Amino acid sequence: MRRVPDDYFDAMYAQSPDPWQLAGRWYERRKYAMTMAMLPLPRYRHAYEPGCSVGVLTEMLSRRCDHVTATDVAAAALEVTAERLARAGRSDRVTLERRSLDSCWPTGGFDLVVLSEVAYYLDAESLRQVLDRECPRLVTGATLIAAHWRHPVDDYPMTGDEANFVIAATADLQTVAHYSDADVVIDVFANGEAQSVAAQTGVPGVVDPV
């Protein structure tokens, strides 16, 4: 299997408007809070979020970014996201498009890429090809954050750990931060030289790592 087929997601959304309970499950709310907290910059110009699902994280990103381009393969997911953004008054901050992670990424000079529960839908070879094609297009210093469920799922080609391992091996991506527990792994990378938050913001007493 090279990737989970698009009709898999259509079937999931046919069963429920929020099949993974992203809007209410505590695991998801906690993970989103950690994802946002681990972003090393207070503000971003343009974020790319493939696999946005029902837009819970999309709305959060719209408050930290001047603009967000969010995509999903399922039309039903994009409809729910559009409704969520409209209710929150955030529609003007977000562009929604129907496309998959392994299609060509939109143009926009992204300085933030958010891979949240999406990279394990591809196999390792396919993910490697996507990252090698797209990451060189990111602006220098861009942040890429990857947050994934660690438990194996029979329908997915990879686990979250395997997906983050492939991402970490991408040329020019330098590790900024890492978190893991029994359920979730979150890695933050910089496209180019990585600096700690304290070093970036001039906090006195920072010692360069040896």
Characterization of the model:
This protein has one domain: Rossmann fold, CATH 3.40.50. The model has no long low-confidence stretch (mean pLDDT 95). Helix 5 packs parallel to helix 6. It is α/β, with parallel strands linked by helices and 210 residues long. The protein contains seven helices and seven strands. A seven-stranded mixed beta sheet has the order 3-2-1-4-5-7-6, sandwiched between helices.
* CATH topology heading: Rossmann fold
Largest sheet, spatial ordering of strands: 3-2-1-4-5-7-6
- Apparent shape: globular
CATH architect. name: 3-Layer(aba) Sandwich
Ranges with pLDDT <50 over ≥5 residues?
none
Number of helices: 7
Biggest sheet, in brief? 7 strands, mixed
**CATH class category label:** Alpha Beta
- Return the domain count: 1
Task: Compute the average pLDDT.
Answer: 95
Strand content: 15-25%
Succession of helices and strands: HHEHEHEEHEHEEH
Tell me roughly what share of residues is in helical segments: 25-40%
Number of strands: 7
Mind telling me the CATH superfamily name?
Answer: Vaccinia Virus protein VP39
Q: Radius of gyration in whole Å, from Cα?
A: 17 Å
